[in-house]
């Protein structure tokens, strides 16, 4: 009898444990989530010795080498000097989807870290919930705005609020058409100055058995990030500016022409077979291994491209209209809400704001010193030892009179980006009609604008 | 007392009654019944049955996966039903179901019929090699098919070019016309051998006497198969139909790994669309609506199969 | 004429059989090639045998951890499912319970509901139970979904056992718990073994739940870990991909080669019991 009662007790315990776990206080379906781990750290930042040790929490990406270097070698090292009485707790958020989920979970429970780094899409979610701190008063007070070469970066939005500070490295990145000097010399190819010349060139290169232009077709990446806009700007940059300012939509005839140009390229065989499955790495490798004669890519890859293929050179994207001079029109990367933000519910808003600005400066220092890349935030560091290719890139960038921000980075919300990517992916098959594209994208755009 | 067995005396009857009562107590032990059945039923209910209810709730809300942002009635459903992508996903899913039912299963059946006639070593070899894909991880198989379909150096295109059929060497996974059939082939290939094995097991259960009688009547391979084997395989067929159709409806891994629903949303299946809406666009409300519609589709299919296939029970 | 046909059919079947194995051979082939040779010489044997692919793949791909996770999930699920499922099956088949029929139909519902249907609420539930990121978050749903088939199979098996089985135990004064664990379980061992094999195969190769709930690197099983490895090879080095695939499939291949009779019996047992 004893054995069976022991059995019964253990079984009952087992059952009770499962019942407890299953019936644990779970919120109503879809209700707010209470994160267990967060509660404990919360307590930590709440217990503070009055007026002596201030604790703030800083959430950052930890899956990216650049981000890790910035945090470990710059922020952590220089923080004690700038903020002697502040203890900073570093929350490592991983990367990609994990980071997004972590941030969203904090946001839903209303308990944000004091300062964090996020990209445009995630920032908008937090701002909409009202959890982001308006940094504008602090920026003006400390004169932070005077350090920027491009004033737009520290201008308040239409509500007079500024939520994000960033180093302004992104704004120097621009899409280029890279090409192999050797291949062009060997086959006596001419650099195209107009779009039609580009198409003819692609047909010629295809006849040579090479891939004319290597692009990242997976999820329509290259089209998403710049190609559609490049094709629009090749005819009329004003349309791109209007789109960026949400003053027009995609049914504009210039957009249609841009899409048709991309289709023409697809049909001329400008891109590799199965391009919609080619990812970032393989696309670059196709170029560096000389299987492709040209590459459509942002200038952030300049250093790597130069190292892998010393014969690399670039041309600005050809124009499609006589009114547009390719040297004068430039698309620049960068999202106004991609950078460092602070929590509206922080116990120490002034410290949080200052720390956010501090982080932006450290970012800029990293780019200037380690990457020899210029930033819109002037750190006073002079950049030396720049390669001639990089110098050519910078010179052309500075001299361009019309600079248009990237519509993808600056204006799209998550839903719009997803829809846009899907449509571009289909466009690259060459079996998709631009009218369908315009219809689907406009629908998402209508929701995006408001 | 006359109904009791003549050899049983009163003592025997007593013992018998005692035994029956003891067994009844034994098997009727209410606490034991509870202890034996409750844990399993609880686990099952919590994870398999219960989730449908919050799912129905969420499908009527605007929900981004972290917060309930308000009750919006049927808006999610209307949104989903008006979405062209949803119908495309359904078309793709049912295309795969169609290919599975009318091409893959008959091929498996054919294999099984041939297997029945094979010599033992041949049969063992065939069993081993054809079931092999079903045993290997789906990630490996999907990645392998990506390599097979690769436009420049993949297995398929290399074979086609070697045979001089260059024009047929398409970009299988990027061409909107071929991407869904390509995925269907990769998916169904994995289970061809396994299904053949299942059919074969059913065939083995048919008594040989039927066939002997048939050969006496002069029936060849085909007639014997048609008139005897296939009808007697009804139960196995029904089981396989349900399993394979539900499997096709629910398949996710191949689409995700090979094309991620692409190019764009061309090769999405219903389950993939649900995953995309819920996790990539963070619209849990719509995702749940798609899931509920999907459940209804599955139930409908199961119902149809039960109604129209194997209506009569066949006893040997 | 008949003979010629038979020979032809045999040849065709051999070719088909080989074609099922061929892709694995092909990956094996590629795993010994250098990156460029994969492009130039997809078919033939490698001109230069490259052995570093395996080492490189192992460096970037945390195979031991993912393998351990996969095994933990499979074994954990087997233990939980068999333990709970056998008890329920016993109760349904041998005990006097009013709701036997209802419970049986109830459990059978699990066969029609694919796990994909409930993944969204499952994720929400897992988060709110605080289980997200723990291995339990996968083992529990795996077991729950494996219960239906396990209970039904054990139920059918148990029903075929003679009623007298427990009688002698009852006379000796055992209670039902002892009878179950000491007498019945050993008798149905073959069915349990079959179930173990089945659950192992289903759980080890499972993708969907693991992909959504088990994405954390610590708890990732092989199916997901391998995918992330493929995706993270920034430059598609097919040599390494081939090596990783061979490494991942090796345990399965070995198990299959050694025990393919049992596995086939397990896979077909369901059909027989119908």
Major sheet of chain A: 4 strands, mixed
What share of residues of chain A is helical? 40-55%
- The portion of residues forming beta strands of chain A comes to 5-15%
Mean pLDDT, all residues of chain A: 83
CATH class of the largest domain in chain A: Alpha Beta
What is the correct CATH architecture of chain C? Orthogonal Bundle
The beta-strand count of chain A equals 10
* Radius of gyration from the alpha-carbon trace of chain A, in angstroms: 26 Å
The end-to-end distance of chain A, rounded to whole angstroms, is 73 Å
Assigned CATH superfamily of chain C: MetI-like
Q: Could you name the CATH homologous superfamily of the largest domain in chain A?
A: Periplasmic binding protein-like II
Task: Please provide the ordered H/E string of secondary-structure elements of chain C.
Answer: HHHHHHHHHHHHH
Most extensive interface, chain pair and sizes: B-C, 90 and 97 residues
CATH fold-level name of the largest domain in chain A: D-Maltodextrin-Binding Protein, domain 2
Written description of the protein model:
The complex is a heterotrimer of chains A (450), B (316) and C (274). Chain A is an alpha/beta fold and 450 residues long. Chain A has 2 domains: 54-169 and 336-369, 3-Layer(aba) Sandwich (D-Maltodextrin-Binding Protein, domain 2), CATH 3.40.190; 174-332 and 388-449, 3-Layer(aba) Sandwich (D-Maltodextrin-Binding Protein, domain 2), CATH 3.40.190.10. Helices cover 49% and strands 11% of the residues of chain A. In chain A, strand 1, helix 3 (65-82) and strand 2 form a beta-alpha-beta unit. In chain A, helix 9 (221-235) packs across helix 10. The model of chain A is unreliable at 1-12 and 15-50 (pLDDT under 50). Chain B has 316 residues and is mainly α. Chain B has 2 domains: 10-71, no CATH class; 75-308, MetI-like fold. In chain B, a hairpin with a 4-residue loop joins strand 1 and strand 2 (68-71). In chain B, helix 5 (84-117) runs parallel beside helix 9 (179-204) and helix 6 packs across helix 9. Chain B is flat, with a radius of gyration of 27 Å. Chain C has 274 residues and is mainly alpha-helical. Chain C has one domain: MetI-like fold, CATH 1.10.3720.10. In chain C, helix 1 packs across helix 13, helix 3 packs across helix 13 (238-273) and helix 8 (165-172) runs antiparallel to helix 9. Chain C is globular. Chain C starts with a helix and ends with a helix. The mean pLDDT of chain C is 83. At the B-C interface, helix 1, helix 2, helix 3, helix 6 and helix 7 of B face helix 1, helix 2, helix 4, helix 5 and helix 6 of C.
